[in-house]
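Final report, Chapter 2: Outcomes

The project's central promise was a pipeline that accepts a single protein chain and returns its three-dimensional structure in a standardized token representation, suitable for archiving and comparison. That pipeline is now operational. To close this chapter, we reproduce one record exactly as it appears in the project archive, with the input sequence first and the structure output second.
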Amino acid sequence: MLMVLRLVLVAVGAVLALAVLCGVFVLFLVWAVKRAWARVTGRPVAPWVLRTDPLAVWRQTAGFRRGAAGGEPVGSPSPPGSAPGPRKSLGDVSDVTPK
């Protein structure tokens, strides 16, 4: 019984590995056709890239909440050439308790 379970698990693993391999092969074929078409048409071959915004997580958290005073995001930089705004006093801090 234990040997049958092992054989079934090995077979499932082999099928999963082949499925992943086929998926990678299909992606490679799509990329190769895209590359060949770009060369035929004289366009530059653009790589596939994953464009991410490193600040996306920060904007979703409490660090980017709208400030009560100015309506600007808490962590946003001021535009170049503008004078820095007034600094917030320690009384404005709401998530820290003084010791």
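Archive annotation: The CA atoms of residues 40 and 62 lie 50 Å apart.
This record, like all others produced under the grant, will remain available to the consortium after the project formally closes.
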